Amino acid sequence: MKMIAAGGFRDITRIASSSPIMWEQICLENQKNISTVLDEFIRMLIQIRCSIDNKESDNIFDMFASSKDYRDSIDILDNSLIPRSYVLYIDVADEAGAIATIATILATEKVSIKNIGIIHNREFEDGVLKIEFYTDQALEQAKVLLNKRNYKICER
């Protein structure tokens, strides 16, 4: 797949790089709902496979057209019930002053931090610092500043 997949493949598989422990627990806690959605997804996959096998061009076209319409209807602006959060996760060495250094880098450039904390998770070898910002602009500025200093940044 890596040899033939287009750039979008990495985007749509982003969740695969997150915590297996977390997703295992999500699946176990939401088994019924997830199974229902998977059953419907499998039904749709079989339906489109049959349309492709039978060269039913109208069905194939309709599937792609309705998928495009649905995707295009998703508003880029935040319209969800849960407010958007602007969060970075940063790998930090387990050494004195590591958090203070990051906070100073951001404060020097007037980047305001809404919330900051250490994530305690056995999955990570080093510490992971979670920083939340008030705005997308502050998040983007923080990414630039910290990338310049070679911090490993992750957004989720």
Brief write-up:
By secondary structure, the chain is an alpha+beta fold.
Give structural notes.
It is elongated and about 65 Å long. The longest helix has 23 residues. The protein starts with 6 loop residues before the first helix and ends with a strand. It has 6 helices and 4 strands. Strands 2-3-1-4 form a 4-stranded antiparallel sheet, with helices on one face. It is an alpha+beta fold and 156 residues long.
What fraction of residues sit in β-strands? 5-15%
Helix content: 40-55%
Number of strands: 4
Backbone CA Rg: 21 Å
Given the helix and strand composition, which structural class is it?
A: alpha+beta
Q: H/E series, N to C? A: HHHHEHEEHE
Q: What is the global morphology?
A: elongated
Poorly predicted regions are: none
Distance between the first and last residues' Cα: 24 Å
Topology:
Elements: H1 7-12, H2 20-29, H3 31-53, H4 57-73, E1 86-92, H5 98-108, E2 113-119, E3 127-133, H6 136-148, E4 153-154
Antiparallel strand pairs: 1-3, 1-4, 2-3
Please describe the structure with a list of short key phrases separated by commas or semicolons:
51% helix, alpha+beta, 4-stranded antiparallel beta sheet, single chain, 156 residues
